[in-house]
Amino acid sequence: MSDFPASWQFRSPKVRLALWFGWLCLVALFVWCWQVMNENTIWMFVQDAPKQAADIGGRMWPPRWSYLGELMVPLWDTLNMATLGTLLGVILAVPVAFMAARNTSPFPLILRPIALFIIVASRSINSLIWALLLVAILGPGLLAGIIAIGLRSIGFIGKLLYEGIEETDIRQVEAITATGASQAQVLNYAIVPQILPAFWGITVFRWDINIRESAILGLVGAGGLGLKLQNSLNTLAWPQVTLILLVILATVVLSEWVSAKVRSAII
């Protein structure tokens, strides 16, 4: 007798039962989340939201173009914050990435878990949280924003870079090793040339992301355009808010264009 079923079925009864159970759990989770949200929601305010949004939108237009001159210095501060923060993140992330990669970590049982923990910790804490902590420690200013950007960048750069290191062609490593090269020479001549294009691409991509993040770090006292935005919101200067948002949008679009051009030239 053959062990095959008489008719082919796309899913077995057990799989179909597990699938239905999964959908049931998903619906139950949705209903529970809806109840939690509904408990703390004042629906009268929600119904009035379109009217309030239209009112604020009317106050925000037209932008106060005469305020543009006062945004040049904060814009420069924002660009410096993103650039210096990215540089700090690169300096800290490169050794962490080499310690996290299986094929380059000098002590995999000890250093690799530590490096992976640093990467996860950096990625799990948002830049605004880092900035809040650093403003409380260092005081308000660009230094707190730069360090916050740098600490946040470690996880992003370190993760992508160590994955790139682990994906290097082993044949080139074996060829360099066969010549009697030391570990440092193997690293310099076999691994680094392979990951260099990816490294520059990751760095430029992270710089582009940091431009966006640094534009709002001033909301917690880290300086830059975000500080001007916070001041304008506090004083209800809606035309200034519109102009600041337009400047942030233009800066992000320009940084995205520069990032795409540089990455296409490198990669």
Order of helices and strands: HHHHHHHHHH
CATH topology: MetI-like fold
Using DSSP, what is the number of strands?
0
Distance between the termini: 59 Å
- The assigned CATH architecture is Orthogonal Bundle
Cα-atom radius of gyration: 26 Å
Q: Estimate the mean pLDDT confidence.
A: 83
Summed up, the helix count is 10
- Work out the strand percent: under 5%
Question: What is the assigned CATH homologous superfamily?
Answer: MetI-like
Number of separate structural domains: 1
Helix content: over 70%
Q: Low-confidence parts, pLDDT < 50 over ≥5 residues? A: none
| CATH class term | Mainly Alpha
Q: Give the structural class.
A: mainly alpha
| Major sheet size, sense and barrel closure | none
Q: What spatial form do the alpha-carbon principal axes imply?
A: extended
Task: Write up what this structure looks like.
By secondary structure, the protein is mostly helical. It has a single domain, classed as Orthogonal Bundle (MetI-like fold). It contains ten helices and no strands. It has helices at 13-39, 43-60, 72-100, 111-124, 127-138, 142-166, 170-178, 183-214, 225-234, 238-266. The longest helix has 32 residues, at 183-214. The radius of gyration is 26 Å and the shape is extended.
